[in-house]
Design a protein that fits this description.
Blueprint: H1 9-17, E1 20-25, H2 44-47, H3 50-53, H4 56-61, H5 63-79, H6 84-89, E2 98-103, H7 109-112, E3 119-120, E4 123-130, E5 136-138, H8 139-142, E6 163-167, H9 176-186, E7 191-195, H10 206-213, E8 217-221, E9 234-236, H11 240-255
Parallel strand pairs: 1-2, 1-7, 2-3, 7-8, 8-9
Antiparallel strand pairs: 4-5, 4-6
Helix pairs in contact: 9-10
Bound molecules: adenosine-5-diphosphoribose.
């Protein structure tokens, strides 16, 4: 049986009255699906240097190395399954007249858990994009047997451009429509949940302050404190796979009639 988060009466009233909710997720939400996080002990950036793998310059310098690294991550993500945190968030669209799920994750586990709409701020590794004309295709198509590109010559689009992962690299702009929607929603929401993110990468992390300025209830789900923990009305200091189902049950309880 799912635990229910005990919301303090005043907080429960505010959550029960909320009409516009936004949830921001990060790598910590997929950690229980076996996908590593980036920072902190055992994080990807402890083992790899982002400037050598996650920048347009790195891709220009060593396209094969970058593609192989992302091909390996794609394989791990494709083999992973959504966890209880993803499944719980898939129930939120039914709970609020206005709901927006915003993620920094590139694994599409929210969509695979049934979330009908997900704003992907950092793109997705389930697709590849032509660096020149912007055409897209499933990443899996580009990954030949064995998960690497067997050919030194990088695969090219019919326009001659290089195929690359459809993710946002450091130093690149976020997809305009995605960040605009996320910022507009955060600036007008009355409930904002930040789950599984260290809130260190901007502009994503800036959404929390926007929601605070809007007077929203702020809930943070993270075993570790973050730079924005002080803004939280409620901190759930533990795993998203435990706290998000419990929080969802609490919200369902305080929003159900009678
Ligand atoms: N449940 C909830 N939170 C967790 C869990 C868990 N099971 N496990 C770890 N965390 C927390 C960590 O304490 C940490 O604060 O998740 C957070 C993950 O932080 P990061 O590794 O920094 O990941 P994220 O915030 O998503 O990174 C943002 O940085 O590297 C870039 O583009 C990449 O989208 C990524 C962005």
């Amino acid at each position: 049986m799912t635990e229910i988060v005990a919301l303090a009466p005043r907080l429960a009233r505010r959550v029960a009255a909320a009409r516009r909710a936004v949830v921001l997720t990060g790598a910590g939400v997929s950690e229980e699906s076996g996908l590593g996080t980036f920072r902190g002990p055992g994080g990807l950036w402890e083992e790899f240097r982002p400037e050598e793998l996650a920048t347009p310059e790195a891709f220009a310098r060593r396209p094969r190395r970058v593609r192989d690294w992302y091909a390996a991550r794609h394989r791990t993500m494709a083999a992973a399954a959504p966890n209880a945190a993803h499944r719980a968030l898939a129930r939120w669209p039914a709970l609020f007249p206005s709901f927006l799920l915003v993620t920094q994750n590139i694994d599409q586990l929210h969509q695979r858990a049934g979330s009908p709409e997900v704003v992907e701020l950092h793109g997705t590794l389930m697709a590849a994009r032509c660096g020149s004309c912007g055409a897209r295709r499933p990443m899996a198509e580009l990954i030949l047997a064995g998960g690497t590109i067997e050919d030194e010559r990088p695969p090219r689009c019919s326009c001659g451009g290089l195929w690359r992962p459809d993710v946002v690299w450091f130093g690149e702009e976020l997809p305009g429509e995605a960040i605009d929607r996320a910022q507009r929603a955060a600036a007008s929401c009355d409930l904002f949940v930040s789950a599984g993110t260290s809130a260190t990468v901007f502009p994503a992390a800036g959404l929390i302050a926007l929601a605070r300025q809007a007077g929203a209830v702020i809930i943070e789900v993270n075993p570790e404190a973050t730079a924005f923990s002080d803004l939280a009305d409620l901190r759930l200091p533990g795993a998203a796979g435990t706290h998000l189902p419990a929080l969802t049950a609490a919200i369902e309880a305080c929003r159900s009639p009678g």
